[in-house]
Amino acid sequence: MLRRSDIQIRDPFVVTVPEEGLYYLYGTTDRNAWSGPGTGFDVYRSRDLAHWEGPFPAFRPETGFWGTENFWAPEVHCWRGMYYMFASFKAPGRRRATQILAANGPLGPFRPLSDRPATPPDWECLDGTLYVDRQGDPWIVFCREWLQVTDGEMYALRLSADLTATAGEPVKLFAATEAPWVRSAVYEVSGQEEARGFVTDGPFLFRPAEQELWMLWSSHGDEGYAVGVAKSASGEIEGPWIQEKLPFFRRDGGHGMLFADLEGRLTLALHCPNRTPDERPVFFRVKPEGGTLVISAD
Questions:
Q1: What are the beta bridge partners of residue 242?
Q2: Which of 29, 173, 246, 288 is the most buried (most CB within 10 A)?
Q3: Phi and psi at residue 247, to the nearest 5°
Q4: Per-residue confidence in pLDDT tens, the chain, 298 aa
């Protein structure tokens, strides 16, 4: 049995399965996710969010799979009785992209739904997430990399009902610098000289009330990696999107998502700190209050 502090993971994503009384924890689990061949994704399970079984191999690439490196940020969503993983991959000569995979249960094994990613083939993309609109139609919401556009962007793209194909053209939601709190970041790119840009990472959409649609997303602020809140003025995915002036979580942690625990309490998951190999999953009780999210003492 592992404690939370034993698990090195980036981009944590938790699925609660009430009928089993279990939580499943996914994330970027390669020891060095930045370089070298990708191994796959592991999953852990728990009854109390403190003690964990695993790791179990949720995904391992089969012969012929296009992605070979940068296995990042798997999310798992239950949709029409199946479990779908949205995860990012890259390969030499190929753009980084989000692929959709499927399995019969939360432990996997997850296998690609198709032979191609869901994001545009000529764009550098990552961190795709599933959003289902009020008409019941599925979308992928994803980031277009700052490496390609300097000012990172957020997009939405409608999917077919079985998630195997896209339907329509990408809709731009916002750019990173539309948020007043975002600062530029400097990264080493492929062992070469440093590059500077404005990051968009980790979208997660939720409705705090029937007519409202909010998004958690990450970038860099004054105190390091952070999580901000954006709100759709129309309550629909197309926006327009209005950015909170300050990040919700400010200091050296990010790529957040929300889940309801087994008692129905809203919980935030993110990784902190944001340095390898020290990143760990962190959980906070949260609640919408005063027009934003606040960490709850409950």
A1: 231
A2: 29
A3: -70, 150
A4: 999 999 999 999 999 999 999 999 999 999 888 888 999 999 999 999 999 999 999 999 999 999 999 999 999 999 999 999 999 999 999 999 999 999 999 999 999 999 999 999 999 999 999 999 999 999 999 999 999 999 999 999 999 999 999 999 999 999 999 999 999 988 766 655 677 899 999 999 999 998 999 999 999 999 999 999 999 999 999 999 999 999 999 999 999 999 999 999 999 999 999 999 999 999 999 999 888 899 886 6
Question: Is the whole model's pTM more than 0.85, yes or no?
Answer: yes
* H/E element, 155: strand 153-158
Tokens read off for 61: 């690439």
Give me the residue spans of the domains in the chain. 2-295
CATH code, residues 2-295: 2.115.10.20
Residue 131 corresponds to which amino acid? Y
φ/ψ of residue 6, rounded to 5: -85, -10
